[in-house]
């Protein structure tokens, strides 16, 4: 937290902006493997993948249970199909976890950025409130001085009017 506070203090001192585009920063640092993991995870979690996968499963089971083939390569209970599905799950799980870890890192950077922006805004608002309080106090002092001068002028006018007029 102290590092974040220091960054905010520096930004205020330098009168600089603190917000940043987290997505652009992450994209500039991505490796080929990370981009590939994101694309695989995106496709693996889509309806397109699910529908294609269901089609392949039904086609596989249909071909292997059909009487057209006298000796199907993978007859019921589809042991080879189970092996393929296990391999797919074993491959897909770590790729999806890598993508989720990157998303967690991106979310952490966003929340850190939001915290810094909020902290800076809070400090700026506090500074503006203090400045407004000072200006209001100065304004009140000035108004009191003006009022004092007006009271003195009124007293002078009253004193002039009350002074006995000498016959002339």
Description of the molecule:
There is one protein chain. The chain is 81% helix and 0% strand. The protein has five helices and no strands. 2% of the residues are buried. The mean pLDDT is 85. It has 168 residues and is mainly α. The longest helix is centred in the last third of the chain and has 84 residues, at 79-162.
Question: Which terms summarize this structure?
Answer:
rod-shaped; mainly alpha; 168 residues; 5 helices
Compact summary:
81% of the residues lie in helices and 0% in strands. The chain is an all-alpha fold and 168 residues long.
Average pLDDT, all residues: 85
Oligomer: single chain
Q: Shape, please?
A: rod-shaped
* Main β sheet profile: none
Give unreliable regions as ranges: none
Summarize the helices and strands and which ones pair or pack:
Layout: H1 2-13, H2 22-29, H3 32-44, H4 47-65, H5 79-162
């Amino acid at each position: 937290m102290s590092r974040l506070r220091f960054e905010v203090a520096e930004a205020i001192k330098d009168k600089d902006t603190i917000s940043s585009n987290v997505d652009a920063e992450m994209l500039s640092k991505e490796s080929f493997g990370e981009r590939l993991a994101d694309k695989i995870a995106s496709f693996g979690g889509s309806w397109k993948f699910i529908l294609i996968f269901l089609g392949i499963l039904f086609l596989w089971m249909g071909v292997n249970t059909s009487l057209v083939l006298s000796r199907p390569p993978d007859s019921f209970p589809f042991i080879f199909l189970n092996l393929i599905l296990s391999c797919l799950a074993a491959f897909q799980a770590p790729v999806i976890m890598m993508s989720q870890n990157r998303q967690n890192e991106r979310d952490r950077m966003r929340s850190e950025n939001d915290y810094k922006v909020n902290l800076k805004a809070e400090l700026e608002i506090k500074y503006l409130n203090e400045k407004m309080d000072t200006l209001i106090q100065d304004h009140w002092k000035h108004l009191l001085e003006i009022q004092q001068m007006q009271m003195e002028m009124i007293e002078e006018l009253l004193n002039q009017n009350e002074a006995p007029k000498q016959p002339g």
